[in-house]
Amino acid sequence: MLRATLKSLLARKLRLTLSTLAVVLSVMFVSGSLVLTDTLGRTFDNLFANIYTYTDVQVAAKSQVASQGGESGTLPFPAATVDEVAKVDGVAKATGQVFLNGAVPIGRNGKVVANQTGQQFGANWIGEDDLVKLVEGKAPAADNEIVVNRGLAKSAGVKVGDSMDVITRDKQRKTYTIVGEMQYAGGRDSMAGESTIFFTTPTAQKAMLGAEDQFNVIDVKAEPGVTDEKLRDNVKAQLGDAFLARTGQELSEESSKAIKGFLNYFNYVLLGFGAVALLVGIFLILNTFSIIVAQRTQELALLRAMGASRGQVMRSVLLEALLIGVVGSAFGFAVGLGLGALGAYLFVGLADGAEVAGLGFPVSAIVASFAIGILVTMVAALMPALKAARVAPIAAMRESAATDRPLTKVTIAGCVVTALAIGSLTWGLTGAGDGTLWLVFGGVLGLLVGVALLTPVISKPLVAALGSVFSWTVPGKLGRRNSSRNPRRTAITAGAVMIGIAIVTAISTIFSSLSTAIGDTLDKDLQADLVVLGQQTSAIPPVITPEELADIKALPGAGTVAARTADAVEVNGEQNFVLSYEDVGAAMTVLKLKAAEGRIDRLDSGEFIVDKKTAENRKLKLGDTITVTFAKTGDKTLKLVGISGESAIAGGIVVSYADATTGFSFPQPWQAFISVKDGASVSATKDAVASIIKDNPEVNVYTKDEFVETNQKGFDVALVVVQVLLLIALAISVLGVINTLLLSVIERTRELGMLRAVGLRRRQTWLMVTTESVVITVFGTVLGLAVGAGLGAAIVTALKEVLGFGAVTLPWGLMVVYFIASLFIGAVAGLIPSIRAVRLNVLNAIAYE
């Protein structure tokens, strides 16, 4: 029996190839995701290890806010601290440094020289060392002289002797002369794609720290024989809890850990799409084995007649599945390995100077590939194996394919699974039980499976209706009947298409509804005619300078101007963001907010106001106090003096500008709302504002409509990313259509030969197979659009209060595009099977067994 199974498997190489391809497609996305994240993780381990190779111990002031802990070294401290560290036992040398993100280079075109990392450092030049090498020019000696890293020089197209404008952390734009270029050890133009600008120490202190005789980092070298850990402990003991002292290894691990946290989320997203691809692949494998068993009916029946038991027949099919699963898993892992490597090189290629570590072979990827591939294949082959074992030998030998069975059991199972899925989804979305995320995920998965089980019943009337469009020709009628005569096969093939389309449509519905809700909210709540807003290009927020704000207020067309800033703080020990207005009275006027309780027209130090919704959520009433931990000044108790009406624009906690000025990391305003005077031209006022901020390339001015559109663009970008990733799942489903039709053509070889013999021409044969492909693909697309729209609408409705959704907005444009694309995809998917059908030799086909 084993020999017969292996002979049967190897005798039909096309069938073997198509079966293996189904497994490969199911496995490669998961293995590729795991390989990618493992390779990137080790790449960043190596990168940060190289960065801190020459660091023994680094000292930085500790932030008062826990959420700022990831960006250590941002707070300045007196230069005297360097002398204090230099006297600690075991210290050979202590060097005060200015090294902060926030030195934004401006190119020759007047725009920011941005990079993919968002790291734009400003530093003081302390001379060459083991890490920094001056490769051209000289060190900066005057206040208007700078040295840049060669990576920045190349990207900006500048050289020694050229001038460059720089916006520093104090948000002042000045022109500097480039007097030198530097590289890092090993001849690297940058460490990881960042830009670094070196000033003289006094200039760096004033421009980056805002004060003279200040540093933000101390580089500490150990005396011979003193370990880094011992040196760190000595420095900690001397400086106390107000400072952080860390070894180079600790800095490397912390930096790498922060990146890996992002990579983990990135991996979860990829694995989520991998799960979708896997679900589609299950349908593909199930359909493949169903057709294979149908094609082998006579062969298996002959084995039964010769004495093979049901168990042997079943084990034969499962053995075939096992072998295909092993081979497919191996190839799937190999393809995933290649995809992971390609993704790693593309990702790291965004950061000049970084190099991909050796390609990873994570155990998790190997185990997942073989576990998923073998398990999925065995499970998918189980039902066809049971079906093969149950066919009586004599009955099987009379037919080349199994007859259709009633759909009663499948329909009942579909109804039960769908009902349970809807219950789980409803329970999860309403938050009535624990494990909300798992309830929602299980509900979505169950709904897709339930609908897939109901698809055979749905397919009969719907396929007949869709196929009638093509029934005006004989090949069209044949193609329609072929797609409807085996509803199980059509349902499984269309189900694979349905899953990808349904998920894309559901996500599109959610994003469209959220985008519309935000647009409606901004249009209703935003009363300003113009909005001045910074475009963030680095970790440091862009700001509107005091001079620019004063000039805007002085414009003849400007009525009320309200500028605001925000910062991360801790409120009663919990991380939060709070707002602050430079003139809170003007803000309430331009935003047209009314006081629900207390006063909201002014704020003194030690006071705060909230909107009505925030007050209800936090159970706050007038006179209550909260403890706010500011980044610079630490804890401060604030008293609630006013509650405003609900507003999406001005919601949350608002503190006084006096407290923001002393406590915020960046107290300068980053946004301003402008109400144009009656009779003044909005367009002319906008042009005047643009003229004022022309030297601040990080800041732009928008009309109200433009501002609303800008806020909605983020959802469009996110939707494009989701659609690109889900194209892989759709590609698998298209290959599933090709696979199904190819196997179907093989199964119907004699039938096709008879049709050709009675006069069906080659072109008509091609049209018949293509029609079948188009009908199946369009059926899956229509079903996916309906399920996806319903699923998206349900989620939007359930989360209306939580996320502020408005009415459900269906993405009609995208849905029409998906439908039209399905016609093209169906035609393309039917191309290869139709070519095989057309090339069949008529006489050989008639004699085919």
TrEMBL record:
It is found in: Cell membrane. Its main location: membrane. Keywords: Cell membrane, Membrane, Transmembrane, Transmembrane helix. The chain crosses the membrane at residues 265-295, 316-347, 359-386, 407-429, 435-458, 490-511, 717-745, 766-799, 811-832. Residues 18-237, 490-691 form the MacB-like periplasmic core domain. It holds the Pfam family MacB_PCD. It is a multi-pass membrane protein. The keyword Cell membrane applies. Residues 273-391, 725-841 form the ABC3 transporter permease C-terminal domain. It comes from the Bacteria. InterPro entries: ABC3_permease_C (IPR003838), MacB_PCD (IPR025857), Macrolide_Exporter_MacB (IPR050250). Belongs to the ABC-4 integral membrane protein family. This is ABC transporter permease.
